[in-house]
Structure formats: structure tokens, C-alpha cells
């Protein structure tokens, strides 16, 4: 099928480093003894634990349930006992601990009863609720709950399935498409029916010919009319905004949802997990993780959620000079020390770091405004301006230069001849802006509460004064009455006065 | 004669201009001070009174009328003083000595075992962040507390503690970039200047 | 008509009131720390300067010259300018109180801004007619605002730059002003 592709601005072509891990099939992981499940595994609100310490759980049983719409449930990745519910370190740049459920595996790996969902005969909302309860989130890395993306009034023109996988080293989607194309295509058909999309486009970069062949084969087998679009290899072609633009020519600022452009986009791994959830009744309890970099056996592992990252790394036999981990790709991932933090639904890749493969960044030298960063920016921003104002802590000015549109893809830092860690500056500035917005919101709410309190105090004062005035008026009326009747004796008058003063006191 | 004409001309001019200005003063009369609201929006609304004024709005009014410095607000911190300086075109000065120095955000926590339910703290809280009833245990709503410490004094049994909020991955922020190259260069320059 | 255009361009660029005539340096250095303030100051000065040239022409031609009181020029011009500045301040206080707060002392100081007094005096020494005076006044004011805004834009950026310690603050601002002045000298070539 012929289709004109639009070319997004900027982008880079880093060395892909994909062959090593793409060669071997996805391998199962020997069951770990202990699994740590951080509660917050998706964007939005963390689910709440539904199990108690010491309770026995089966594989696939809900251990934390989503209570809000923008949230997804969490399930036990294997059968065993809940050993602890407490704070455990995460794969997060802060290294701070966060609430998690720890499960000690009993080695049986016993599933709870699994039932396929009869989704064709259910209302769409019921299917969405089922996906939420199955813990389906975007497995590309953004971990946004999929059911929220599907919950839209907008008419979807193009359903885009993202198999671009543009970051170096990562091959988990590539292997998944090669090995499980049929399941992915079935999942796409389900999504097509749910969204009512007119057109379904599967985007794959042209450096994955086998995945393209596998997907095309599965599509013709299923007699579907999905189009597999071959994208020229250029980072970040797999980024949502860039992908939508490349395929449809539609562009919008970051605060406009894709659905407002009549487009919706899902990652291939997410589609696969949606199919597993609906056709096999299996919630998201495992994912494919690429382990690569400074290791003897780079490979894609199908690891249970909650497995320790170093334990997974050990399976690929890291070389002895490994001094750290990159979680995610080398462009956008987090560089961490060797950590016991668990694999979560968003961890698509672990790269063993060594000074040989990732030499330390040379010292930053001053920006001479060469604009190499602006030419590389796929969002059409001017990173040198953003850098200038972020460094000067003039965040409002940085916001004026559309800091919010930055997708932190790292192209600017990659091409910067002065070795300035631009993305770090932007993350810092974004964090400060977000914190300032939070504080402003708190201050506004404190102010309105303070003002209401003052209003209330004044109202109470006014009510009291009114009461007093009424009492005084009543007393005056009584006295007038007493004076008018004249027959009242002095004693009676005195009694009246005492009574009214008592009344006043009440 | 010349000198008389000169005086007459100048007097006439002055009279005309004076009349025009007098009319303008009535025509463009300004009520209140609209800058107050803008200043108030920058203040942190803790209503703590540490600036010496009974709440944020009175302090904002004092700044607007030029009666108070802009660096008296500890909860707003140096950052707040900087923002005020920018808004008003005044020179930035870090927090004044007479007020306490900048602090991290703290919230009041009621030690539940000791609380006798006297409601005194509820009456003292300027932002309605404490809930409870007479002879019932009180509690502070953490998200609403501004950390102003106004509830500490009225408490007869000293059951209120101020606690710093622990950092979580959600509130964590990326630190500022350490500038290795440029900083080193600057230091070299400074040492050269010292020579 | 073209002569007016030449006069205007000459006043804005070639004989720029700040960078070439070196008049009005007080607000130029004082109110150029922020772009927004520079816009406000530029607008206020433009208003005052244009009004002042018109008013001073009328006073000079219909009051001072007939009465033979040319020696009172400076005095009467200053009084007129002071009145116009007062008027401007009232208008700004009504329309943009924040701008008034930000301009602070520099707003009443327009009174003693030598550019505002200088332009009417130049007008008289060049024997400009009424319309010419107005065009020259407006041109000078536009030139003033243009340079003020340009300078404020540069200073905002320089403020955040790694300026060596001895040059921080006013020193680097003076150097910047000098370089801008050199650049504006280049417009002299337009005259030939």
C-alpha cells in the first residue's frame, strides 16, 4: 500500500546496537523466590492493597485494586504468600522508597481460575472496566492505563499501533512481533472494534524486516486490512507525537490529547497484553524485558513483574566491569547504580553499564549558541534558549519558550558539541515549575479557606448582634407594656426586669 | 517693565498648568490600591503572622503602600522575596534577620493520646485545617495545613508537633545540574583575580 | 513629505537621542533591567516627549517670542514638561498601577530627563516648524524606546550570563551600551 509519510523535524541516527539481543528468542525466566510489587505501576492514582500480610495468593489474583478511573489494578505474578506490605526502593532517580507488596513465591506458580472474556457480546464500558481490573497499562514505558485511552467520545479515524521501537538496544517489541504476531493481530482487531477506527496502521521501523514480515503474514492469515507502514529509521520515530505526525500529518501542542486529533495509539506489547487479558483471562503479571549492553548473553527475557533488576541482569551474565544499570533505553532511560529495585510494567529494557560502552560525559563547556540542538529537536524547540533560562533559574522565561513541549528525548544532548546535559537542565526546570504550580494551588486554597473563615466569623458576629438587638427590643417592649398598664406594682416590675435579664443571659 | 511682563507670563502659565493638573487629579482619581491583589497572590497564604502583620493580606497592603519591606515572609522564603522584588521593581534582599530563616515545609501533627479535645487549636487555625469536636480527639488534615504554628501556643497540653514532610518519589524533583566544566573555569578566574 | 520621513529616520536612527546624542542616560541605565519595564518606560517617555515638543513650540512661538522673553525658554519648558509628566503619572496610576509601581522614581524623573528638555531646545536651534517639531519629537521618542527595549533585552540575558566578577552589574551594562553606541554610529552612513 502506498502512503505518503510526513517527515518530522530533527531527530538523530544513533548506532542501534540491536542485533545482539534480537538474535535469540524470548526466554522464560526461572521463578524468583521473592517479588516486590510497587503499588504505583501506572500513571494516575496508585491502587489500594486488598490483601493482608501472611495471606496466600494465587497467580493472577488481585493484590491491589484500582479505586479511581485513572488507575489500574495490580496482580500477584506467581502463587505464594504475602510477606510484607511496606516501603521498598524503586527504579527511580531519587532512590526513594515507595509503598509495595512483597510476595514470597511457593514455587507452584499456580494460576487462579482463568476465563476468557466474551468481549464481543459486552458493552464497551464493561470491556474497559475489565481491562482496568486486568491491570492493562501502556507497556511502551509511559504506563498510562489503556482503558482510559479507550474511554473517549471522539471518533477515531486512525488507530496507530506503535512497533517503531526507535531507541537503541531495545528489541523486546521486535521479538514480540516476530514470535507472537498472531496474538498481536487478534488484539489489534479487538482494539479496532472497540474504537471503531476507520483505518489501522502498524508502524515499524525499516531496520526490523523480520518483524514486518511476521506481522504482514499474520494479517493476511487473519484476513484483516491493517496496513503495516515501514518507517525510515530515525530516533525518535516511535515517540507518540512524532509517530502521529509521520503517519497522518496531524500535529498539536502537548496539552491536546491524540483523541482530539481523531487518532489513538497503542504499543504492540500493550496490544499483546490486552489480548492475553481478554482471550486468556491473564492479567498483566509479566513482560518482555531486553537485557543488553555489557553482558555475555544479551537476550529478551519474559520476566515476572516484581523481579529484582540485578537478578534479571545476572541471567544474562554481565561482565565483571559492569558498574551500573540503565533502565529503559540509553536515550531516555534512567542511569542507576546496580539496584535491587523491581521490574515494573514500564521497564522495557535493562542495559548493563560499563565505562567501556558508556564512557563518562566530558565536562560541560559553555554554550556558544551553535543551534545544533535546535536542528536536532523533533519538537521544533530551541533547546539552547531553554537551557539558558533553566540554568539561570528563570523558569517562567523557559516556560515562555515552550518548555512543556519538550519530550525529553535527548536528541539535543546527543548532538551538543559542548557536552551540555541539556535534558537534565530541562527536567530540573520542569520539576521546579511543577512544584511552583503545586505551591500556588495550595496557597490559593489556603487563601480561600482563610477568607471563608473570616466571612464566617463576621457572619457569626452579625448573628450574635442581631440576637442581642432582638432581646433588647423584646425587653423594651415589655417595659413599655408594663408602663402602659400602670396597674403593675413596683414588685412586679422588678420581677419582670429580673426575668428579662435572665433571658438575656441565656 | 520687562521684568513685569516676564512675571506676568510665568504666572499665567503656572495658573493654566495648575488648573489642568487639578482637573486631571479629579478625572483620574484612583480608589484603593490594585497592586495589593498581585502582591497577595505571591504570598504563600499561610496566614502565620510571622511578618508582624495579622495575615497575608494586611502584609500585602503594607507592602503596596510602602510601609513594609518585601523580605519579611519566612514561608515564602528567599524565592518569594525574589518574586516580589521582580513584581515591584525593588531590589532583591534575602530574608530579613528579624524574622526566622527559611524552613522546609512542615505540618502540624496532633499526638492523639494526649489530645483532650479542647477545640482551642481549631479556633486558632487560620485555614480551617483542623477537624474535631469538643471532648473528641482532633486531627490535622495534612494536605490543608500550611505549617504556620499558630495552633502550638493555644494547646493546653502541648500535644501538637511540627513535622517535616518526608520526600516521596512523587514530590521528588530533579536536582540542579552540577556544572563541572564552567564552574572549574570560574574558580580559576577567581584565583587569578586574587593574585 | 519625504523631508519629514528623512527627519523621522534621522531622529530614530542616525541621530539617536541616547546612543549618538548621549542624552537621557538616567532612565537608559536605570529602567532597562526588565523588558516589560522598558516597554512601559518607552511608552511613557514617547507620550511625554511628543506632547512636550508640541507644547513648547506653542509656548515659544506665541508667548515667549512675541513678548521678547526668549531667555525664559529653559525655565518655562521645564515647568511645562513637569506638568505633562504629572499628567502622565496620573494616567498611568489609573490605567496600570503595577507599571507605576515598577517605574517607581523614574516616572517623575522624566521631568529632569535631559532628552525631554533637549529635544525642544534642539527643535528651536534647528528652526523647525510646528509639524517638523512634532515629527522630530516623535522620532526621538521612538528612537529612545527602541534603544531602551533593545538594551533591556540584552541586559536580561547578560544578567544570567557568566560575567567575570569585576565586570558584573553596571560595568558590563556600560560596556554593552558603549558597543551599542558604536553600532548606531554606523547609521551615520544613511545620511550621505
Would you mind describing this structure in some detail?
The complex is a heterotrimer of chains A (506), B (195) and C (192). Chain A is an alpha/beta fold and 506 residues long. Helix content of chain A is 37%, strand content 17%. Among the domains of chain A are: 19-31 and 126-304, NADH-ubiquinone oxidoreductase 51kDa subunit (Rossmann fold); 363-468, no CATH class. Chain A is built from 15 helices and 17 strands. In chain A, helix 5 packs across helix 6 (209-221). The longest helix of chain A is centred in the C-terminal third of the chain and has 64 residues, at 422-485. Helices cover 38% and strands 7% of the residues of chain B. With 192 residues, chain C is mainly α. The relative contact order of chain C is 0.21.
Count every helix of chain B, treating DSSP H or I runs of 4 or more residues as helices. Answer: 6
Uncertain parts of chain C? none
Helical coverage of chain C, percent range: over 70%
Mean pLDDT of chain B: 79
End-to-end CA span of chain B: 71 Å
Please trace the helix and strand order of chain B, writing H or E for each element.
Answer: HHHHEHEEEH
Shape verdict of chain B: elongated
Distance between the termini of chain C: 19 Å
Cα Rg of chain C: 17 Å
Gross CATH architecture of the domain at 104-165 in chain B: 2-Layer Sandwich
Shape of chain C: globular
> What's the story with the biggest beta sheet of chain B?
2 strands, antiparallel
Let me know the largest β-sheet of chain C. Answer: none
User: Radius of gyration of chain B over alpha carbons?
Assistant: 27 Å
Q: Report the oligomer.
A: heterotrimer
Amino acid at each position: 500500500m502506498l502512503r505518503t509519510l510526513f517527515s518530522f523535524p530533527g531527530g538523530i541516527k544513533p548506532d542501534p546496537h540491536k542485533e545482539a539481543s534480537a538474535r535469540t528468542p524470548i526466554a522464560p525466566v526461572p521463578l524468583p523466590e521473592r517479588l516486590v510489587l510497587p503499588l504505583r505501576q501506572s500513571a494516575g492514582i496508585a491502587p489500594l492493597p486488598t490483601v493482608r500480610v501472611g495471606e496466600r495468593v494465587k497467580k493472577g489474583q488481585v493484590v491491589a485494586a484500582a479505586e479511581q478511573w485513572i488507575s489500574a489494578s495490580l496482580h500477584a505474578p506467581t502463587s505464594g504468600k504475602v510477606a510484607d506490605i511496606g516501603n521498598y526502593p524503586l527504579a527511580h532517580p531519587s532512590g526513594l522508597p515507595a509503598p509495595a507488596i512483597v510476595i514470597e513465591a511457593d514455587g507452584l506458580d499456580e494460576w487462579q481460575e482463568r476465563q476468557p472474556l466474551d468481549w464481543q457480546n459486552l458493552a464497551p464500558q464493561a470491556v474497559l472496566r475489565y481491562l482496568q481490573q486486568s491491570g492493562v497499562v501502556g507497556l511502551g514505558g509511559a504506563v498510562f492505563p489503556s482503558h482510559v485511552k479507550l474511554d473517549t467520545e471522539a471518533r477515531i479515524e486512525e488507530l496507530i499501533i506503535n512497533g517503531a521501537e526507535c531507541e537503541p538496544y531495545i528489541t523486546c517489541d521486535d521479538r514480540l512481533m516476530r514470535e507472537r504476531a498472531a496474538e498481536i493481530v487478534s488484539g489489534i482487531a479487538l482494539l479496532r472494534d472497540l474504537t471503531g477506527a476507520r483505518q489501522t496502521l502498524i508502524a515499524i521501523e525499516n531496520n526490523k524486516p523480520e518483524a514486518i514480515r511476521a506481522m504482514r503474514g499474520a494479517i493476511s492469515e487473519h484476513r484483516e486490512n491493517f496496513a503495516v507502514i515501514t518507517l525510515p529509521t530515525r530516533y525518535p520515530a516511535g515517540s507518540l507525537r512524532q509517530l502521529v505526525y509521520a503517519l497522518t500529518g496531524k500535529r498539536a501542542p502537548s496539552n491536546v490529547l491524540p483523541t482530539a486529533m481523531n487518532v489513538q495509539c497503542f504499543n504492540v506489547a500493550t496490544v499483546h497484553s490486552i489480548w492475553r487479558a481478554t482471550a486468556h483471562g491473564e492479567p498483566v503479571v509479566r513482560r518482555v524485558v531486553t537485557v543488553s549492553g555489557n553482558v555475555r548473553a544479551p537476550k529478551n527475557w519474559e520476566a515476572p513483574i516484581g523481579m529484582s533488576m540485578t537478578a534479571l541482569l545476572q541471567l544474562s551474565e554481565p561482565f565483571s566491569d559492569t558498574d551500573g544499570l540503565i533502565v529503559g533505553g540509553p536515550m531516555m532511560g534512567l542511569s542507576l547504580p546496580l539496584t535491587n529495585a523491581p521490574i515494573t510494567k514500564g521497564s522495557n529494557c535493562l542495559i548493563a553499564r560499563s565505562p567501556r560502552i558508556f564512557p563518562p560525559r566530558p565536562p560541560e563547556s559553555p554554550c556558544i549558541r551553535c543551534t545544533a540542538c535546535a536542528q536536532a529537536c523533533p519538537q521544533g524547540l530551541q533547546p539552547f534558549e531553554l537551557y539558558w533560562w533553566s540554568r539561570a533559574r528563570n523558569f517562567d522565561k523557559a516556560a515562555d519558550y515552550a518548555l512543556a513541549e519538550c519530550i525529553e528525548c535527548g536528541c539535543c544532548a546527543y548532538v551538543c558539541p559542548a557536552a551540555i546535559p541539556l535534558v537534565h537542565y530541562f527536567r530540573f526546570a520542569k520539576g521546579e515549575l511543577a512544584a511552583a504550580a503545586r505551591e500556588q494551588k495550595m496557597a490559593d486554597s489556603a487563601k480561600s479557606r482563610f477568607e471563608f473563615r473570616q466571612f464566617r466569623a463576621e457572619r457569626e458576629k452579625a448573628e450574635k448582634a442581631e440576637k442581642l438587638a432582638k432581646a433588647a427590643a423584646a425587653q423594651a417592649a415589655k417595659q413599655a407594656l408594663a408602663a402602659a398598664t400602670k396597674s403593675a406594682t413596683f414588685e412586679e416590675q422588678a420581677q419582670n426586669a429580673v426575668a428579662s435579664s435572665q433571658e438575656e443571659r441565656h | 517693565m520687562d521684568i513685569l511682563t516676564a512675571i506676568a507670563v510665568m504666572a499665567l502659565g503656572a495658573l493654566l498648568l495648575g488648573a489642568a493638573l487639578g482637573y486631571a487629579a479629579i478625572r483620574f482619581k484612583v480608589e484603593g490600591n490594585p497592586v495589593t491583589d498581585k502582591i497577595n497572590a505571591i504570598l504563600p497564604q499561610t496566614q502565620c503572622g510571622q511578618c508582624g502583620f495579622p495575615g497575608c493580606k494586611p502584609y500585602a497592603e503594607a507592602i503596596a503602600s510602602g510601609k513594609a519591606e518585601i523580605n519579611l515572609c519566612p514561608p515564602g522564603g528567599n524565592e518569594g522575596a525574589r518574586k516580589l522584588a521582580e513584581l515591584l521593581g525593588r531590589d532583591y534582599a534575602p530574608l530579613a534577620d528579624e524574622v526566622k530563616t527559611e524552613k522546609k515545609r512542615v505540618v502540624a501533627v496532633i499526638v492523639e493520646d494526649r489530645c483532650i479535645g479542647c477545640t482551642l487549636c481549631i479556633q486558632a487555625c487560620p485555614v480551617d485545617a483542623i477537624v474535631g469536636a469538643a471532648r473528641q480527639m482532633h486531627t490535622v488534615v495534612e494536605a490543608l495545613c500550611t505549617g504556620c504554628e499558630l495552633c502550638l501556643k493555644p494547646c493546653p497540653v502541648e500535644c501538637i508537633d511540627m513535622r517535616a514532610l518526608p520526600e516521596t518519589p512523587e514530590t521528588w524533583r530533579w536536582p540542579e545540574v552540577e556544572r563541572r566544566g564552567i564552574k572549574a573555569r570560574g574558580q580559576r578566574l577567581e584565583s587569578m583575580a586574587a593574585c | 513629505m519625504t523631508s519629514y520621513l528623512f527627519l523621522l529616520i534621522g531622529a530614530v536612527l542616525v541621530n539617536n537621542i541616547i546612543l549618538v546624542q548621549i542624552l537621557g542616560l538616567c532612565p537608559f541605565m536605570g529602567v532597562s533591567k526588565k523588558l516589560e519595564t522598558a516597554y512601559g518606560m518607552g511608552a511613557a517617555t514617547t507620550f511625554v516627549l511628543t506632547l512636550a515638543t508640541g507644547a513648547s513650540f506653542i509656548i515659544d512661538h506665541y508667548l515667549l517670542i512675541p513678548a521678547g522673553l526668549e531667555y525664559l525658554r529653559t525655565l518655562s519648558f521645564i515647568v511645562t514638561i513637569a506638568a505633562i509628566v504629572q499628567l502622565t503619572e496620573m494616567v498611568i496610576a489609573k490605567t496600570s498601577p503595577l507599571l507605576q509601581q515598577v517605574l517607581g522614581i523614574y516616572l517623575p524623573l522624566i521631568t529632569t530627563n535631559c532628552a525631554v528638555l533637549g529635544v525642544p531646545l534642539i527643535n528651536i536651534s534647528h528652526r523647525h516648524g510646528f509639524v517638523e517639531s512634532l515629527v522630530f519629537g516623535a522620532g526621538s521618542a521612538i528612537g529612545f524606546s527602541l534603544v531602551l527595549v533593545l538594551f533591556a533585552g540584552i541586559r536580561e540575558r547578560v544578567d544570567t550570563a557568566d560575567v567575570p566578577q569585576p565586570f558584573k552589574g553596571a560595568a558590563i551594562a556600560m560596556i554593552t551600551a558603549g558597543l551599542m553606541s558604536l553600532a548606531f554610529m554606523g547609521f551615520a552612513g544613511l545620511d550621505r
